[in-house]
Fold:
Amino acid sequence: MLEADGFKAIAGKRIGLLTHAAGVNRRGESTINVLRRAPQTKLVCLFAPENGLDGTTKSAQRFNDFTHGPTGLPVYSIYGKNKRPTPEQLKRLNAVVVDLQDVGARSYTFISWMRYTMEACFEHDVEVIILDRPNPLGGLKVGGPPLDLKWMSDVGAFRIPYVHGLTMGELATMAKNAPGVLDVSEKVREKGKLTVIRMRGWNRAMRWPDTGLKWVPTSPMIQTYEAAVGYSLLGLGWQNNLWFSGIGKDYAFRSVGYAKKKPEEIIEAMNAYNVPGIHLSKREGLTSNGKPTSGVFVEISDWDTWNPTEFCFYMQKQAAKWATINPYANLTPAEQSTFLKHVGSMAWYEALRKEGGNVDVSRFTKSWRERSAAYQQSVKRFWLYP
Structure:
């Protein structure tokens, strides 16, 4: 859309680009190359978030600045010694273009690094230009625990439900217009300049397959759209590594296994909870070493009745039920911090820690659904698409 409009939004500007491997146009051409051919525009540098510019660096692995071989441009890591562009890096720029593909979940860190970049740019009078992209889960599905203020972090930089239902551009619009979202003064926020290059043809009811676009891997574990959905479907259930991916490398975030439990035992135990919109089945696969294995495939059988993340909390309940000693009662301070930064709810953690396999999951999921509905009403004013 930027190119279709003749690159007007960046004309006459020296720009930096925050992007990754999924930053391509619908023909698969890198945004780096698209911007380099923009007339009256100078692409000065690149910024790389978690997983690196090419998307192959392991999650949580820090990396340093480097030079982009094909173009000779400097690549500044904002997942290394710095987590936002520095004043020195910004001083030659008129704008930073942000082109990142999100997966619709709070802990997937590209939205966090968008926020940090907005803060740095606003503080140094540099415009932020968001090249908007579809939310793969659509714009109507919202759910999961909200984030307690105390547990904000790089995997929770917005106080939103775990599945947030917004596009990158809409999140940026909220950050620009709602007080207290960005960690900057009100004067800086109000003065900051944000431009969102909107999509054409996308509406909130569309999930990724409806767009007709090819999925480009966004990180090493999110190689497919199915994995992107699975990130919200199962991701929180794996906190503290009690559960694991049951069918090996070809089913990232879509299968579960549990030590010394057969697939049939897992299916029987989890089916007893009657989690809406979920279907479980036994499948065969291969381990990372190429050995045959079997596990439980988790499928969303009814998208409308599926409540994002709900299955995860029954996974945690069942883990406590199977264990001789409640595994959530003895987390180290570091393990507790990791759990809470991802899950976001101290109330849930305390209930799980104290009650273990007897915890009432439905009491929490009911509250989270109500709070998600209220959130969705409150953010409609930031919607850019019907």
User: Anything to note?
Assistant: The CA atoms of residues 93 and 106 lie 29 Å apart. The longest strand covers residues 278-286.
